[in-house]
């Protein structure tokens, strides 16, 4: 038998041609969530760029990191007083592991970068309190009785532990109600802040910020009132746009400036059905100079309301600060709706944050105040173990891959595939794509002279990380 010797160079060239393209420079990570099957954040094989078929792609999605928009503060939850008490009650090892999972920034950790807390009690505290409660018929104009005592039991110690894990986490704070002696009905529920107390209430905010800072907790931003158009909660307060404008313009803003408070003032903090509320405040030339931006929830209205405010006041920031999931909800339906509206939707409208509601509850959906929410499902349920609920996965789908400081890339959108992309601080690009349809879809992606065709499974949310 005659043996023919092959040219080694030819063998190498043939070998390279036979190697699948996906094996060359596998630089695109692929994570897929299939919420119908509750198969979340599954790591799929890496993908690779193609430099050969540029001309074949039709209407590709162009990842142009030069076309950047807002810088993102991040994603997270409200750490209510009830959540804090439940987490603090865990044994030390379980608590330590849970906090690392939630606030760490390593692989398989949620990477929460924003927390919202209440100034005084929210409706997810077991009892209602402010930081300056005095007997009925009394007042405290000097704030002599001001005390963080109630929150020093659980919330503040927990915040200090969280800050030891992520010192850069941004903390937003908002009151559900002023002290009752400042209100016209002298009750925790409803009523209005009496104008005669506007000045002392502004000092109440400053005292809060200063006392928290003494404990090593910097408050990044405050809003004057949670859901000012919903006085039916307990605690709560009714505050019109005109009232909030006067409070910010004539009292809160000047007091912040006088006392050199760097904490941002964000207005509104309520539903997307009333964009005229923040626009009214921002239209006032004196009030707007103290206001960093406006905050939104989505229990009513459409997420496009953020863009309406941005169009009127493009120099002011936007924040999405609350959306709850209910115990009666469907995991798949809630996950897909929140990803589409709260995460992708708010980011594409210019929001710097996307926050879900309560971080933790018990098996009875508590603690909550008398009259507080009885159906709010926490991101986790703490009862003989840790149960991770739909809000946990909603935020993790974004926060695990999109760190604070990322900048949104303006995209040409693909029909029927909501998506959002970010240039991360590590110079990688993160693309989040949702496919609500039952069938898989393919989309071409282009970056400079490279392309890749992505396959998005039906009823899924996919996250891609591009190493450029």
Automatic annotation (TrEMBL):
Domain Glycosyl hydrolase family 30 beta sandwich: 405-464
Alphabetized Pfam families for the sequence: Glyco_hydro_30, Glyco_hydro_30C
N-terminal signal peptide: none
SUPFAM superfamilies per UniProt: (Trans)glycosidases
Glycosyl hydrolase family 30 TIM-barrel domain sequence ranges: 72-402
Keywords: Glycosidase, Hydrolase, Signal
PANTHER family cross-referenced by the UniProt entry: GLUCOSYLCERAMIDASE (PTHR11069), LYSOSOMAL ACID GLUCOSYLCERAMIDASE (PTHR11069:SF23)
Family: Belongs to the glycosyl hydrolase 30 family.
Designated name of the protein: Glucosylceramidase
Species name: Aquirufa beregesia
